[in-house]
Amino acid sequence: MNKTMQNIAATALVGRVKGMAVAMSRVQPFWVLVAIVILCAVMSVVSDVFFSERNIYNTTRNFAFFGIMALGMTAVIVTRGIDLSVGSMMGLCGIVTGLVMQAGYPLWAGFLACIGTALLASLVTGVLIAYVRLAPFVVTLGMLALLRSVAMVLSNNKMIYEFGPDQEIYEWLGGSSMLGVPNPVWALIILTVILFFAFRYTAWGRWLFAIGGNPEAAKLCGIPVERVVTSAYMVSGLTVGIATFLIVGWFGSVTNALGQTYELNVIAAAVIGGANLMGGVAYAIGAPIGAALVELIRNSLLLAGVDALWQGAFVGLFIILAVLVEKMRGNQE
């Protein structure tokens, strides 16, 4: 009898494991993770320094900044939106942070100024898109130019490198590590866990996916579409603010050029990680995985001696492949 029960339990366990394996193979982040493993295996042969402690540290730190912003971008893309202004928003937030701390204010004041600037800019963007019903592409393209211009005016086109009495702490926060893991990576891990639970277990997360699937039907079901869409852009702004605060601390200085073209890498990370540009499909874990692949491509090309000018071509190719794979999987279902 006991043997029979054990066999039944073992069979049930095997069935659950198989079910989990099949479910994982159906989501895009799984295949992106496979691509990362293959790329790492190839680079371990091509380059002797790929798995060196220094290269791993630099690579993980670099992709953490894009991964943090890609989390917010994922929330926007779920609603069928896009945010082209995240790079310019980073530039403005960085300048505001630098100016506040240069004036002698403490670290927490610089953080609040950075986050507040990001939330205000993203609130304006969200209201124009959700309530005024302007196209996300047009609004965020306009904000891209507007925010960069404001950053140039505020900075007077000068570098800011004096961050007041808390400069050493600030530089440690952005550029050092705890337990051998870069501080920005810890921030990425925490934010990924938060967004995972928000997507999966909160009404806000369910509303996001419902809006992305069918905004008209979501409206008829009583979902506050305008408010939720605005909040998605503000989440994107929040992640930009956090990434900006950390990256300025790492650089130890800031100019109004901070974040230029970053929007391309952020969107690439979100899309490669499984966020469907048609809305309704995304994975919180996909954002850091997508950001990791984008950074690994850049790092691998440099170590392999490939001209840096080819980086954009490879990233663009992976974006197209990611969209193609998603479309093929959709047709099969």
Task: List descriptors.
ABC transporter involved in vitamin B12 uptake, BtuC; 14 helices; two-stranded antiparallel ribbon; mainly alpha; 2 strands; 333 residues
Descriptive overview:
The protein is mainly α. The chain has one domain: ABC transporter involved in vitamin B12 uptake, BtuC, CATH 1.10.3470. It is built from 14 helices and two strands. It has helices spanning 2-25, 28-46, 53-78, 86-102, 107-130, 136-155, 167-175, 183-201, 203-213, 215-220, 225-251, 262-272, 286-303, 311-332; strands spanning 177-178, 181-182. Strands 1-2 form a two-stranded antiparallel sheet. The longest helix is centred in the last third of the chain and has 27 residues, at 225-251. The two termini are 42 Å apart. The mean pLDDT is 87.
Brief rundown of the structure:
With about 325 residues, this protein is mostly helical. The protein has helices spanning about 1-25, 30-45, 55-80, 85-100, 105-130, 135-155, 165-175, 185-200, 205-215, 215-220, 225-250, 260-270, 285-305, 310-330; strands spanning about 175-180, 180. The chain has a two-stranded antiparallel ribbon.
Helix content: over 70%
For the record, the CATH architecture stands as Orthogonal Bundle
**Secondary structure category:** mainly alpha
CATH-defined topology? ABC transporter involved in vitamin B12 uptake, BtuC
DSSP helical segment count: 14
Radius of gyration from CA coordinates:
21 Å
Residue fraction in strands: under 5%
Oligomer: single chain
What's the rounded overall pLDDT mean? Answer: 87
Compute the separation of the termini in Å: 42 Å
Query: How many strand units?
Result: 2
